[in-house]
Amino acid sequence: MSSANERNPVLLVHGIFRQAGVFNRMSPYLSKLGWSVYALNMTLSDANLGLDHLAEEVAAYIDKTFGPKQPIDLVGLSMGGLVSRYYLQRLGGIERVQRFITISTPHNGTSMAYLLPQPTCIQMRPGSAFIDALNEDAAMLERVNFTSIWTPWDFIILPAHSSRMPVGKEVKVQVFAHAGMVISVKSLQAVAEALKEPVKPHHQLVRIPEPQKLPPNGNNI
User: Fold this and answer.
1) What is the pLDDT of residues 63-74, one digit of tens each?
2) What are the DSSP E strand ranges found in 71-164?
3) Which residues contact residue 9 at a Cβ distance below 8 angstroms, ignoring those fewer than 6 apart?
């Protein structure tokens, strides 16, 4: 069985209108601390692909990159946290993800999503069918080590406390602005601490050798 001190590979999932490069500070930070860090570029050219379809891209990337019995840890930034939640709660990811961390994710929607009419934005509006459906069974996230990291100074997630969840662990950091959450030392330290937490005993999986890293192509950073 995997012990609490062994480190899973970490997959970073970016937010809307961004790609894996947004983690150009977080990825080397975690790598230096000993984690194998991966990221993917989701299809987000015009925000017309729904969050559920983006979650399918995440699932496909995970199936292609890691062995079927390889446990992983997942970090979702902003919209990427909702995409990751759909993967866990609807696509079977709950069976292999051991630590799940969201950073400034609009778990209860954001009023900023009313500014654009694209499907991705509609799903992120407060009270949307997508948000409500995920929150109806959010309790299943208790099966993993779930941590929500947020800042009261977030001007993209409105209101900022929309990033709070009634399940898991909450970490509030005093970081100015949404963009700062992926580069601030406070945020990076919070992510690292969450990744170090011992896995819940009932969710320990058999560990197999980690696959060889992909060549540098934007998918493994």
Assistant:
1) 999 999 999 999
2) 72-77, 97-103, 145-150
3) 35, 36, 37, 38, 66, 70, 72, 73, 210
pLDDT score for 203: 60
Joined together, the tokens standing for residue 220 give 């493994």
Condensed to tens digits (0 to 9), the pLDDT of residues 181-191 reads 999 999 999 99
Q: Which residue has the tokens 């058999």?
A: 206
CA distances from 94 to 97, 134, 141 (A): 6, 13, 8
Conformation bin of residue 104: beta by default, left when phi > 0, alpha when psi is -120 to 50: left
Tokens of 18: 């961004």
Count other Cβ atoms within 10 Å, centred on residue 17: 14
Enumerate helices (H) and strands (E) in the chain, giving the number of each. Answer: 6, 6
Q: Quickly tell me which residue has 């980690």 as its tokens.
A: 210
Cβ(98)–Cβ(72) under 8 Å?
yes
| pLDDT value of position 117 | 92
Question: What's the sign of the alpha-carbon dihedral 201, 203, 207, 211?
Answer: negative
Which class for 133: exposed (0-12), middle (13-18), buried (19 or more C-beta within 10 A)? middle
DSSP 204: -
Q: Tell me how far apart the alpha carbons of residues 76 and 136 are, in angstroms, rounded to a whole number.
A: 20
Q: What type of residue is 2?
A: S
Q: What gap in Å lies between CA 49 and CA 27, rounded to an integer?
A: 26
Q: How confident is the model over 140-176, as pLDDT tens digits?
A: 999 999 999 999 999 999 999 999 999 999 999 999 9
